[in-house]
Amino acid sequence: xxxxxxxxxxxxxxxxxxxxxxxxxxxxxxxxxxxxxxxxxxxxxxxxxxxxxxxxxxxxxxxxxxxxxxxxxxxxxxxxxxxxxxxxxxxxxxxxxxxxxxxxxxxxxxxxxxxxxxxxxxxxxxxxxxxxxxxxxxxxxxxxxxxxxxxxxxxxxxxxxxxxxxxxxxxxxxxxxxxxxxxxxxxxxxxxxxxxxxxxxxxxxxxxxxxxxxxxxxxxxxxxxxxxxxxxxxxxxxxxxxxxxxxxxxx
Length: 251
What we know:
This protein is of the alpha/beta class.
């Protein structure tokens, strides 16, 4: 038996990186997962790997109609919906002076508005089913700022606040809302084009108690815990998985 037996969970940005790790872990814990992403080939390949307990839906988190579609697909295929992981996001390192307004708005649209749309879309279904759990993926940059990350930091602080407000609003309906705050996790988003590849990561990790990149699979058990009944008294809370980055003095 797993802690997510018979749960149905939507995971956005689920085709690769942390989202894919979540999908694999949730299925191993007994869940059925609906993977939303714009990376169709990767999403379909992951479903082929996971089998009948997984489904893929092309899904743009900034599209209101797409949220209606993925919720409808989840309930049509698996008969119910129990949880959502708002995992989709974008990370861009760029000094404020070099970022245009369109770039700033794009990051907020994906990271923040996408999460808000997701909460709004699933809340009525979760409530009608007797309750459920929403996990919003923020960041350590939802708790501390960093140069070159004004838009990303703004979006992740806002996701943290959105989580708390939604928890207050939805608690009476049995819907819990929490946020997780990963640190330096090795994913395509943090290590691909647009990352800080010109920065010596060894100097950063030398100041971190667990002095290495975290792996996506080290975040997934926390997300599963928050989706499960083991966290039944947790809502409006933030959970950090950062190797100790935030435990020390500011960098």
